[in-house]
Amino acid sequence: MSASVLELPDYRELAPEVAARFDKISERPVILEVRNLNKVFESAEGPRQALKELSFEVRRREFVTVIGPSGCGKSTLIRMLAGLDEQSSGQILLDGREVSGPGPDRGMVFQGYTLFPWLTVKKNVMFGLEIGGHSEAVAESEALQWIEMVGLGSFANAYPNQLSGGMKQRVAIARALANKPRILIMDEPFGALDAQTRCQMQSHLIQIWRQVDVTILFITHDLEEACYLSDRIMVLGSNPGHLMEFIRNPVPRPRSDEQCLSPVFLSVKKKAGGVDPPGPILEPGATAEDSHDPGGG
Ligand SMILES: Nc1ncnc2c1ncn2[C@@H]1O[C@H](COP(=O)(O)OP(=O)(O)OP(=O)(O)O)[C@@H](O)[C@H]1O
Ligand SMILES: [Mg+2]
Q: Ligand 2 centroid to 110 CA: how many Å?
């Protein structure tokens, strides 16, 4: 393929429907704001900076993927957003309020299967609802709706060991969404699945996201997954982890498998893979020198 075919369009010259989508997103309120986030781990060999001066914004109902080499701090970022770990400095604001500790406003889905093996699918999804103060009857009826939504209506009474990996992750998504989080944070949720199941889960997640008022921050190693799923792609660099680029994904929606071969898809993939020097579809202002993302989508 010639280099010219892979050239990225300027974000101001996106297809009209894509440009309109970004205009719409930019009118929505900011849900997540990360300001000058730093994380230093203390170890026997001395302090080690895992994340440096990370700043970005995510808007309501946006789908943002985070990509970067192993060890660049993706999971560290997720753990701090989840309130499972504390930053060394900087701020994390959700709906303008500082995050401190875990909370039901953030739904988490991890790569490892985290269902309670001794509970049925239904009871797994009901668990958080009952902890949150819902009566058993309300929790059951809501859980069943979410189980239906992820396509597992006939497995409500099954136990996790009776489910495939993809089905377990569907339950994990239902469980996370049942608590009506403001943001769904997913750390390589499909990383352990075979290629075919992974593709099915990606399109399934998009279907769910279209139906539910939820913002998604999705970590992945897989460039194609990032291009297929997201509105914007946050590219992190390592040593220490830092924001390299924020790419507006110009691939039109709805997306299909065939689009994986389109020039615009390949150009985004190439860009997110770090082959190109920073180019015109960068968010205005989002550079290695100035990582703040003023546009927010
Ligand atoms: N608890 C910890 N104590 C010390 N160092 C840590 C700790 N957790 C993470 N690190 C270090 O911080 C850096 C970032 O790790 P992190 O797990 O966030 O990377 P990652 O981008 O998620 O990698 P991967 O793609 O392999 O999942 C790594 O150098 C890691 O060794
Ligand atoms: Mg990780």
A: 10
H helical segments located in the chain: 16-27, 74-82, 121-131, 136-149, 165-178, 195-211, 223-229, 263-272
* CA 54/CA 76 separation, integer angstroms: 12
Surrounding residues of ion ligand 2, Cβ less than 5 A: 74-75
Q: Where in the chain is the domain with CATH 3.40.50.300?
A: 1-105+185-297
Q: The pTM is what?
A: 0.87
Ligand 1 pocket at CB < 6 A: 41, 43, 48, 50, 68, 70-76
Pairing of strands 232-237, 242-248: antiparallel
Q: What is the pLDDT along the chain (297 residues), one digit of tens a residue?
A: 443 444 555 544 577 888 888 899 999 999 999 999 999 999 898 999 999 999 999 999 999 999 988 899 999 999 999 999 999 999 999 999 999 899 999 999 998 878 999 999 999 999 999 999 999 999 999 999 999 999 999 999 999 999 999 999 999 999 999 999 999 999 999 999 999 999 999 999 999 999 999 999 999 988 889 989 999 999 999 899 999 988 888 888 888 877 777 777 777 777 767 644 333 344 444 443 333 333 333
Rounded distance from Cα 145 to ligand 1 centre (Å): 37
Q: With the CA atoms of 164, 169, 171 and 174 taken in that order, what torsion angle do they form, in degrees rounded to the nearest 10? A: -160
Ligand 1 atom nearest to 79, measured from its CA: 18
Q: Identify the residue whose C-alpha is closest to ligand 1 atom 25.
A: 70
First to last CA, the chain: 30
Q: How far is the CA of 59 from the centre of ligand 2 (A)?
A: 23
CA of 73 to the centre of ligand 2 (A): 7
Ligand nearest to C-alpha 50: 1
| The CATH classification of domain 1-105+185-297, taken from the options 3.40.50.300, 3.20.20.70, 3.90.1150.10, 1.25.10.10 | 3.40.50.300
